[in-house]
Structure formats: structure tokens, C-alpha cells
Amino acid sequence: MPKNNSYLKRFLIWRYKYISQKNFVFLLSILVGLLAGLVSVTLKNITFSIEALLEKGIVFSQNQLYFILPVIGLLLVFLFVKYISKRPIEHAIPSVLFSLSKKGGILNYKKIYYPLITAPLTVGFGGSVGLLGPAIVSGASLSSNLSRLFHIDKKTRTLLIACASAGAIASIFKSPIAAIVFAVEVFSLDLTFASLLPLLIASVSSVLTSYFFLGNEVLFNFKVTDTFALKDTIFYLVLGVGTAFGSIYFSKMYFAILKFFNRFKTPKQRLIFGGLAIGIMLYFIPPLYGEGFGFINNLLADDHLSALGKTPFDNHIDNIWVVITLLFGITVFKAIAMTTTFAAGGTGGIIIPTLVMGSALGNVVAKIINHIGFGFHVSEANFTLVGMAGLIAGVLHAPLTAIFLIAEVTGGYALFVPLMITVSMSFILTKNAMEHTIYTRELAEKGALLTHDKDKSVLTLMNIDNVIETSFIKLTPEMTLGDMLHKGVAKSSRNLFPVINSEEQLVGIILLDDIRNVMFDQTLYNCTSVETFMHNPPDYIIYEKDNMHRVMKKFQNSGAWNLPVIKEGKYLGFVSKSKLLTAYRRELINFTS
């Protein structure tokens, strides 16, 4: 190990001498892109290998007992978590966002390979989730630890994590532009030349990695043939409204199911109940099985019979309204199956399930328009694609990502206008109804969410521990005025004194101004006490609850220059406005430089 450290030290010295910081970031972005691409390819190959093994060699799939498989996958993940990882599974992208805002982009190295085990077990055995989230967190962890190895600063580390995320998306979808836009929208990255070029390099190198290992294989084998017509504008607006309601439903159902599963006391109980629920849903709605790319491709090929597969309603499948009902059922239950998979202990992402749900909803809207009896006709394949974009825009609040993703996977921009119509309508309605997404709501409640608002982002990045001062002489309520002057005022350079009881609780404060007119009256030294002069502070900072946004607001509302900090009910120290503003200015310079 010392020898390895010696080699690393020599390399770092050589790098500082001969490679500028800018060029080194470019080189690292290439490396991060390649690694993110390798992670994505590895994740897909492991998962597809499990799926192939189960389809060809296992009796479950041959006898229509496939709905049992997700339960087995969840059980394997449960055993891995309990006996090997011994740490609860975190949601992929929210954990990365939290590390960027509160941990300086530091991610545990175990997150590099844990998703490569748990995600294939979940998805390969038919869990109704996607692989993109695990690919992003694995690539981000690789990037984070690589940055630490090469002593990269926090701001550049954040950029490289965004590069890894963009690389994962570019590799899976082969859509480098959408990957860059995703990093900007979801990770709240400033789109400057300094950030754009590394993102572009990482995306391209990741796509090349995907082409090298997977060839020209694409997720959606589709080319747009039906061009946009002006008369279809109203229908794409209707689709936008539909995907907005679908997005709101998706998000609300996600949080409702997670809240319901929190009632179970143990992971084992969640596994049993969730596994049974998933099995029942899969029995009645087989397309909920797995990621769902086959379902999307069948809809794009105008083959809804293959998309639906064998269901208990096959005797009525000739009725188009039965087909519409079944497809709408997939729209409704995909969100339930996905969240139940998470709640039961599975690992995965939400982006691909969102695409599946959006494709079903778009196809439903098109079929209703075509068969409602008014002589209208629209392209069902186009509506399937645009429905996917509308739901991505609403669920993730990432409209540009949605537009460029669908435009790139279809190999052109023939649907650009309808994409903009539907996506903008979906985003506007959803954003007004729900301020935060599945990714960001919990982080926003914790005050740990980075946004494109620089002021809020700087406050989020600040740590309250760095601005707490403890160099205040404590007084007790029973202390006389004379003792306070000799033991407090005479020995302190501060004009503020906390008054503490025997249990270390803050009972009041005294300012030097409070005793200025009596401090030289010696007749009061022994007959008056601290309790006579103390008073309540204008406000309190609660260490466990108040983030930097609330701290700044309390200073603004109270007009105070110092506010006491209370931790677990006891006095901890003070935060001064001057130190807070100095720390804010320093963080702002680091954030914007």
C-alpha cells in the first residue's frame, strides 16, 4: 500500500507540473464517461443474462407462473442486504443529490458495486422497476471516489458526478444530448462552457463504449413516418393534459404507497406483503413484469395484442374498448407495481417505468380519438412516443430532457413540435400542482435540495456546524452581579452572555447594554443576581430542525445579531450574523467561480 501511495504521489506531482486543471478535468471526463458506460453495459448484461436463464431454463415461465419470480428476486435482495451489505437500500438519484448538497459529493465506494448486484436481482427476476437509477448511482460513486483519489476539489467533483450521470443515460439510451440536458435539469448544474464541454466529452465516450460492447442495438426500434399535421394540435394538447394528470397520480401514488409500507415494522413483513401484491398484479396484468421495453416496442409496432400478452380477459380482446381498458389499467398499475417493488425492498429506477406508463397512456389517448366515432385519426405510434415525453416532463420536472430523449431515440426531430406542445402543457400543469418531484420532495423538506436559484443553493451547501461559536462565558441565574462582572464581563471579549441552569438548558441571555448603567454601582454587587437582568433571546435556532434557509430567515425576521443554538434541548452556542454572512459570501464565491 505505501508503494502504491508513492506512485500516486509521484503522478499527482507530475500532473501539477505538466497538465493544467482544465485539461485534467477533460481527461477525467473521458475516463468517467468510459467507466459509466461500462457500468451501464455490465448492469444490462447481468440483468439480461438472468432474464434469459429464467425464460429458457426455469419452469416458472413455461407454465405461466412467472408472477412468482419477482418475489424470489426480492427475497434474494433481502438476504443480500441483511447478511452482506448490512445497510438499508437508498433510493438511487435522491441519494446522489443528497451527497452533492450535504456531503460535498462524497459517496461510499460500496455504492459502485452494490447496485450491480441488487438491481439485476430485482429487475432480472421481473421487478417492475428500471436499471437507469442504479446505473447512475454506481457511475456517480465511481466518479466520486476517483475524484477523491486525485484530490479533486468539491466543485469539480460535483461536475464529474454529473458527467457520470450523463454517461449512464447516454449509454443506456444512446442519446448524448438528452444526457447532458438531464444533468443540467436534475442536478441543477450551471450550463457554462466550463461544465458543458466535460459533460459532452463524458456523454460521447459513454455512447462509444455502449456501441463497442452492444453494437447498433437500440431500445426502441422505430422511425417516425407520420409527420405532424396542424389539425392534430388540439389532440396533443389533450395528451399534455392527460400526461399531467398521469404525472400527478404517479407522484402521489408513489408517496402514498411508501407511507403505507412504513407501517410495517420489519423488512421481512414488507417483503411478504409487497411480494404477494406484486404477484397478484402480475397475474392479472402480465406487461407489468420487468422493465417493460418489450411492451413499448410492441405498441410502437402497432401490435397491442403482443404488448398485452396473455391475460384473463383474452376472450374479449377483439373489442377495442377492452384493449383500451387494459392499456389504461397498465397506466394505473405500473406506478403501483413500481412503488411496491421499491417498498418491498427492491432496487431500481423510476425513469423507465415512467416511460412505460407514458407509452400506455399515449396509446390509450390515440385509440380513444381514433375510435370515438367522430372520424378523427391520429398516429398511435406518435402518441405513444409523445406520451412518454409528457410523463417524463411531469414526473421529473425535466421538460427539455423529455423532448431531446424522445427526439434522439427516434433518430430525428420530426416530432419536435408535438413534443413541445405536449411536454410544455404537462410540465406547466404538473409544476403548478406539485412543487417538488419524487426525487426532490424529501430533500426539500430536509433543506438539502440544490436548485438553479444560486441563493438557495449556496444556503443549502452551507453547514451550520461551521458557523456556530462557543466562546461565550456561561452564567447561572443565581450568580450575583459582582460575580458576573468579575467572572464574566472582565474575562470575556464578547458583549453577550448565555444564562444556563444546572441541566445545561438556556434560560435567558444578558447583553452588556443590559447592565451598563448599574455595573459600577457596588452597592448592587451582592444584592442583585443575574436572574434580575436576563431576558429571552429574540429567537432560537434548533439544531435538529433548522436548516440554513430557516436560520437566515430567523435573523431577517428577528433583527438580531446573535441567536442561540439549542441541541437536544440544551445550549450549544451562538450563530452571529456577521459570521453567517462571511461564510455565505465565501461559499458563494466557491459556487460561482
TrEMBL record:
<feature type="transmembrane region" description="Helical">
    <location>
        <begin position="191"/>
        <end position="213"/>
    </location>
</feature>
<dbReference type="InterPro" id="IPR001807">
    <property type="entry name" value="ClC"/>
</dbReference>
<feature type="domain" description="CBS">
    <location>
        <begin position="534"/>
        <end position="593"/>
    </location>
</feature>
<feature type="transmembrane region" description="Helical">
    <location>
        <begin position="381"/>
        <end position="406"/>
    </location>
</feature>
<feature type="transmembrane region" description="Helical">
    <location>
        <begin position="320"/>
        <end position="337"/>
    </location>
</feature>
<feature type="transmembrane region" description="Helical">
    <location>
        <begin position="271"/>
        <end position="289"/>
    </location>
</feature>
<dbReference type="InterPro" id="IPR000644">
    <property type="entry name" value="CBS_dom"/>
</dbReference>
<keyword id="KW-0472">Membrane</keyword>
<feature type="transmembrane region" description="Helical">
    <location>
        <begin position="157"/>
        <end position="184"/>
    </location>
</feature>
<dbReference type="InterPro" id="IPR014743">
    <property type="entry name" value="Cl-channel_core"/>
</dbReference>
<feature type="domain" description="CBS">
    <location>
        <begin position="468"/>
        <end position="529"/>
    </location>
</feature>
<dbReference type="Pfam" id="PF00654">
    <property type="entry name" value="Voltage_CLC"/>
</dbReference>
<protein>
    <submittedName>
        <fullName>Chloride channel protein</fullName>
    </submittedName>
</protein>
<dbReference type="InterPro" id="IPR046342">
    <property type="entry name" value="CBS_dom_sf"/>
</dbReference>
<dbReference type="InterPro" id="IPR050368">
    <property type="entry name" value="ClC-type_chloride_channel"/>
</dbReference>
<feature type="transmembrane region" description="Helical">
    <location>
        <begin position="233"/>
        <end position="250"/>
    </location>
</feature>
<feature type="transmembrane region" description="Helical">
    <location>
        <begin position="63"/>
        <end position="81"/>
    </location>
</feature>
<feature type="transmembrane region" description="Helical">
    <location>
        <begin position="413"/>
        <end position="430"/>
    </location>
</feature>
<feature type="transmembrane region" description="Helical">
    <location>
        <begin position="24"/>
        <end position="43"/>
    </location>
</feature>
<dbReference type="Pfam" id="PF00571">
    <property type="entry name" value="CBS"/>
</dbReference>
<feature type="transmembrane region" description="Helical">
    <location>
        <begin position="112"/>
        <end position="137"/>
    </location>
</feature>
<keyword id="KW-0868">Chloride</keyword>
<dbReference type="GO" id="GO:0005254">
    <property type="term" value="F:chloride channel activity"/>
</dbReference>
<keyword id="KW-0406">Ion transport</keyword>
<keyword id="KW-0407">Ion channel</keyword>
<keyword id="KW-0869">Chloride channel</keyword>
<keyword id="KW-1133">Transmembrane helix</keyword>
<feature type="transmembrane region" description="Helical">
    <location>
        <begin position="349"/>
        <end position="369"/>
    </location>
</feature>
<dbReference type="GO" id="GO:0034707">
    <property type="term" value="C:chloride channel complex"/>
</dbReference>
<keyword id="KW-0813">Transport</keyword>
<keyword id="KW-0812">Transmembrane</keyword>
<keyword id="KW-0129">CBS domain</keyword>
